[in-house]
Amino acid sequence: MKQKNANYDSGCPIAFALSVFGDQWSLLIIRDMAVKGVHTYGELLNGWEGISTNILAQRLKHLEETGLVTKRRDPENWRSFVYELTQKGRDLAPVIAEIVLWSGKYNTAEHAMMGTVEKVQADRKSFEVKIRNGDLP
Amino acid sequence: MKQKNANYDSGCPIAFALSVFGDQWSLLIIRDMAVKGVHTYGELLNGWEGISTNILAQRLKHLEETGLVTKRRDPENWRSFVYELTQKGRDLAPVIAEIVLWSGKYNTAEHAMMGTVEKVQADRKSFEVKIRNGDLP
Fold first, then answer.
1. Residue ranges making up the domain that contains A102
2. Contacts of B117 in chain A (CB under 8 A)
3. How far apart are the C-alpha atoms of A58 and A55, rounded to whole Å?
4. Which residues does chain A have within 8 Å of residue B92's beta carbon, measured at their own beta carbons?
């Protein structure tokens, strides 16, 4: 069954944001760059959640088109590329922080990763500032 | 082309949150309840972004199963139902606030709705408290 896409053009700020990063994968890609410090296609492909190569390529293209990610040649390996968050992408830091806090409260799974949750609980400001500056939080 | 679903079971707090509300539609449904004060199936169906009835039914079911939404008989019309956010759902208030602020910064569309953006910019705390209390912000 083909699913109808949302008419994100409603002008609503939530709908606008979802048109940029509101699918299953985009925010995980942004997380990999912002929090895990991942910058190559290969590293993104080997993320925790098992993204497929066609979806990764499609999402990266969309994130580039919407100005959240830039792509440039790797100066150390001219055949490959480096992906980086733009300021617009790094400005999602407070959204990421709030999502992490919410999950810390409600994810009761035994294998829930609590490291980042505890980091944000202890010093949310510094977590955000580091992402905004392009450092690893 | 069938798209592979993310293995949300990684334990990462971002992945956990996306497993609950990280699709195109769920956060718009949550927005309708939290910010627009919408509580019936018909009202949700007539939202700004044009959701179809099968997707709305599917997403509401998922939001119920994950504990963000409750469904009960409408005391004023026994044949219909009222949908409401639980505390877990209302606790997304800060996530919503940060998304609204980010979009306010980056949505340059002429028809961008700025009312909520200005409300959050002026008094984010009160916006969040109202959602958390189940009032309209």
1. 92-137
2. 13
3. 5
4. 102
Q: Return the residue of B nearest to A54 by Cα.
A: B3
Residues B41 and B82 occupy one common structural domain = yes
Q: Where are the beta strands (DSSP E) in chain A?
A: 69-74, 77-85
Q: Tell which wins on pLDDT, B128 or B10.
A: B128
Q: Is the pLDDT of residue B87 over 50?
A: yes
pLDDT of B92: 97
Which of A16, A18, A20 shows the shortest C-beta gap to B112? A16
Contacts of B37 (CB under 8 A, 6+ apart): B136
Using the CB atoms, write b or e for B67-84: b if 16+ within 10 Å.
ebbeeeeeeeeeeeeebe
Q: Against a cut of 0.80, is the pTM above it?
A: yes
Closest alpha carbon to A90 in A42, A46, A137: A137
Q: What is the CATH number of the domain that holds B38?
A: 1.10.10.10
- What is the Cα–Cα distance from B77 to B137, expressed in whole angstroms? 26
Task: Please indicate, yes or no, whether residues B113 and B134 belong to a single structural domain of this protein.
Answer: yes
Q: Among candidates A27, A131, A116, A40, which has minimal Cα distance to A79?
A: A40
Residue ending a domain, among B50, B70, B86, is: B86
Residue B33 shares a structural domain with residue B72: yes
Neighboring chain B residues of A94 at a CB cutoff of 8 Å: 98, 101-102
